[in-house]
Amino acid sequence: MQAEGTTFYRPLISLTLASDYFFFGANAAGFHLSNLFFQTASSLLLYLVVTDIGRLFLGQKEEEAEITDVNQGSYRSRLTGLAAASLFSVSPLHCEVVAWIIARVDSVACMFYLASMALFLRALNSKSKFGKAAFLMSNFSFILSLCSKEMAIILPPTLFVLLFLAQDYPQAPSTRQRFFSAFKDTLPFWSVLVFYLVFRTLALGTISGGYQGSIGEGLSNSLVKRWLSDGSFMRVLMPLNLDVFGHGHSIFKTLKLLYILSVASFGAALLTARTRTVALKSIVFALVWLVLCLLPTYQVWNLTETLQGSRFVYFATMPLAFLLALMIIPPTTPKLKNQILDRLLMPLRLVLLASFIIIFATVTIKNNQPWHHAMKELKDFQIAICNAADRKPDKNIVILNIPQSYRGAHMIYNGATMSVMLTPPLARQAIVDRVYTFEPATFGDADLISISRLRRLASMPASKNNVFYAWDRNKFSLTALKIDPADQSPNLPDAISLFPMAGNPHETLLLSKDKIALSPPVDLPASQIDTIKVGLSASSIEKLKNLKDSAEGKDAALTLSFDQGSMTLPLLKSLNGGAITFQVSEHKSWIKQGLVKQLNLKTVGCPFELEIASINACSLLKEIPTLQADGLDLIESPDGICRTHGRRPTFSYDATQIPGATGIICEVSRPNSWFEHYSGTLRDRQQAPNALYITNWDKTKGRGILLSCAGPLKDHGFYQIKIAAVDKDGHVLGYFSDPLNFQL
Fold first, then answer.
1. Distances 728 to 411, 620, 697, 703 between C-alpha atoms, Å
2. Distance separating alpha carbons of residues 42 and 37, to the nearest angstrom
3. Residue 690: pLDDT above 70?
4. Is 13's pLDDT higher than 70?
5. What domains lie within the chain, and their CATH numbers?
């Protein structure tokens, strides 16, 4: 019913995927064809729904529907329906739902939602057997929509508002009677909804569902920002992927002009209309419908600049298309004296509609390009891994830089997705047990990596069986990565001076706005370096302190660039003891270099030259304790998750290498929560305020420690455990260990 870390009830989606596999096997083209079918069916059904909504507001009965071609109001309803369906079908916000196979949850739910709505409107005034059958089919379609996605819960209130606002329905003298009459006609849908909510709650153990753990908390904490201050709503109207179009594209101005003309079209129609009631009620209903479509997305709403998250807007594009269609072709009948003007305006309105469709289609084609790129890269990535496994059948493949997304297009977000891709029928043979990855079990930072686990894989006795690769996203190929066990030795020096060079202890480096390369070349293994510490001169530190309360100080940052990426840190927040410390080895972009050849520093937003006194490449092997599973009853899988294989899952730890340590502190996360989701780093120096359990032990080394000793774990899910050395007063020394991930 749900994946770990999420609580959904969507059984029909699993059936659609099973059906596709039955007919098409592992051929992705068949699955994409189904996605296209769901999108097309939704567009056609929206035409029927909008057309019937227009008839309902006009107060027409079923028997009048046969002569609608000679009725101007009905003609407008059909035209508005065609406009809404056309705009919906080419919406640039639909690329994610149509191109991403699993995102069909929205289009499938929408298809059955609209089918239910269309059947209900056809059955509303019909007393025939067809009307009764259509009503039953409408309720059944509603059930199918609910079994596809929770968004369908908005159908009963949508129908209720529609009937309550309809001009001639019901023919009742008071608002109270209209209210109860509308509720009575939609009562079967409310009953189905109540039954669904009760059943779903019993099945899942919660009525709300959605994302759990630290992901759910993060969504809740950023709710106001995502809804009000990040520009998501403007991107709904200007649905251009900025990674494709850029910020200054001319289409922005063109769309703005078209929207202004649409408002002008609606205003002109109201001024010349015989009656404004139908048009205004249609607009009110469209706006209420839009609000209802947005309400269920309150937790997950997030439309980024690359339109990632546009699937959350899919339902809302129905009323948006309807609203825009109403503006372009208003459902009004002109006064007798204005009929000639209305006939002259109609071709212009059709040109306006055609302009919208052409612009939307053009934008959609370009918005879809990242998805085409992602499909090709993912296919090449899978083939490359399978070929590497075939070439080295006696070795394990360790992969860095797994492609998670491309310009907003989703690829491999977690270890579970990777596992499925390396198992039949998607792979020729199951190689999932031979491919070691560093992706989180659930959604997480694409660049963070547990360097401790990488070092364990490099230094374990069977390391000769591990072959390290990094995926080259430019060449679409695997690049051999040299990870030498000798580079992970605790006997390495704590720091290597990169600047100043020997013999010039008083030399300083001035940083202006231009990049300054450090020389000579570094030529050090990336996995050997944990931090780059940039020491500042006393004068620069004093200048930065003077910037503390200014806007320039808040924006001032220092960027470290290297072969495979860069890191930027705010100067004031990151300055500690006169140095800026870049935690490099917790980032995949750093490790995948293999050998560090050149470093660059650059100031951002700093109003003065920054004087660099020293640059050191440092190891944290004597500041980070070690933590690992026993490998017997608690075994770390290739995806980095430890799973129990017996009754006594245990782990070991060692903090003896940390000077001054007299014991350790152990923290266990909440279910499906990840410490780095809160702090943004794996290198914590402070205790986590959101830990489930915190335990202190007075020994700096231990073996065979039961998981239950860290805390009584009762709920199933993913967990993290980490430790830090403490002194005799209980203060944390150095850093917490890289977390050990396990699943119950």
1. 48, 22, 11, 22
2. 8
3. yes
4. yes
5. 8-170+177-367 (no CATH), 394-486 (no CATH), 493-618 (2.60.120), 626-743 (2.60.40)
